[in-house]
Amino acid sequence: MPSIVDETNFSLAQDESEATYVGMLKREDERLDFNDAAKNIVNKIRALNPEPLANILVDDEEWKILSAEVGSTKTGEVGVISEVGKDYFSINCQDGCVNIREIKPSGKKNMMVRDFFNGYKKENLINKRIISLGAGKGILEWHLKKNMPELYIECTDYTLNAVEQLKKVFVHLDSA
């Protein structure tokens, strides 16, 4: 503030060559993909806050993520909750983990994770898989598991898109 008062404050013009344009965000752009780097996931959470908010699916329930930080080391499979602390839970990603600090569970208000744990058994989160829709795999698995459990097969190749996953399912059905 003192630099504004004594008029020594100066502004820098934006370098238009480094400016980027983001088109209309779609609903699937809000879903976090844990096959990405921890830093990118945290930056996406920051970018989507305060609206529309990044989200994850836990037990078929959408949780919006308001704040997170890059965690230390990955201790398991990508997209799985590996650690639960007093005021955070960690989800494994490509190069480490992301510590979730503030969430908005479906139908509830924004809350810190430590407050969320007052009404939710944190032990139930350990080793829980987060459904990630980043590559289309998660939505296919979720729909098959929920609506057609007899057709559900575990899809382990995270690089396939949804169309390739469907082809894999139909090949599986033909061979059965």
Helix content estimate: 10-25%
- Assembly classification: single chain
Low-confidence stretches: 156-160
Count of distinct strands: 6
Distance between the termini: 72 Å
Backbone shape: globular
> Which band does the percent of strand residues land in?
15-25%
| Run of helices and strands | HHEEEEEEHHH
Biggest β-sheet strands, sense, barrel: 6 strands, antiparallel
Mean model confidence by pLDDT: 80
Radius of gyration: 20 Å
Number of helices: 5
Walk me through what this model shows:
The protein is of the alpha+beta class and 176 residues long. 24% of the residues lie in helices and 20% in strands. The protein contains five helices and six strands. It has helices at 2-5, 38-47, 113-116, 137-147, 162-175; strands at 54-58, 61-70, 81-84, 89-93, 96-105, 111-112. Strands 1, 2, 3, 4, 5 and 6 form a six-stranded antiparallel β-sheet that branches. A hairpin with a 5-residue loop joins strand 5 and strand 6. The longest helix is centred in the last third of the chain and has 14 residues, at 162-175.
Topology summary:
Blueprint: H1 2-5, H2 38-47, E1 54-58, E2 61-70, E3 81-84, E4 89-93, E5 96-105, E6 111-112, H3 113-116, H4 137-147, H5 162-175
Antiparallel strand pairs: 1-2, 2-5, 3-4, 4-5, 5-6
